Amino acid sequence: MHNRLSLKAVQAFEAAARLESFALAAEELFVTPSAVSHQIKQLEEHVGVHLFHRVHRAVVLTDAGRRYAQEITAAFARIDAATRDIGAEEKSDILSIHCTPSFATQWLMPRLARFSALNPDIDVRLNASVSPVDLMTSEFDIDIRYGLRNLQPAGTLVLMLPPETIVPLCAPTLAQGDNPIQRVEDLAKHMLIHSVRCLVTWRDWMRQHRKVRFDISRGLRFDRSFMSISAAVDGLGVCLESLLLVERELESGTLVAPLGRTGTRIQAYTFNVQKSKVDLPKIRSFQHWLFNELAEGEARAGLS
Prior knowledge:
The protein is an alpha/beta fold. It has eleven helices and twelve strands.
């Protein structure tokens, strides 16, 4: 029992047991009947029991052989099923990404088709939530976080994403309507939209414009940036948001920056990955693509 088990012998046994014939097993396996007989004899010597009764020209499974055949047949069936399943997936790798909801909705999802086109063998799984994940214990490969500077586990690599610019944004009908927005003072005539999780608030913005005073306690409040952006697109007021998150809206004209695209620059997003996974091709491909896309977006906006 110390010798290595021959898979050829097991395969020959499975075929002979299923077909109840050494000759038919040999035909299926493209070998001679004597080769099948030899392989099964080796297997019997290995396990120390007879698996077949040789009755004249026929072979009949022993009780031990019948029990063994049931297990071997089930094992081969699982191998066949696993082979079919992995072939049906079509992708070589699965990349699991955890991300904050607004970055996922406003920036990442509209661009994922580009990444998939460049990397057809990578299947992307995206999960969005506010709570950070522990990459050391979770199933996620990457975590894109916002505003979380907490210390990560020792085995985690943290990369800062490029800075983003925060400016007032609104629908063009609001910027050019009955109360057009051409100066900072004009904001006093409009509803303010507050993104309560944004690291730059209307109060911070007002500190940079000390000559102007209006009530920043008023307005609509949302705990997700994508909700504030949607409200601004619908003409409900003026939001203070990141140009990074509104590239589509600015290109389509559903949002404008009435006071210009120069504003507070902050680095708030981080790219988090286990150090042990950094050199995996799927991680490298996504990291390279992500930072290239961000740099190209900055260049298009004239902010780099």
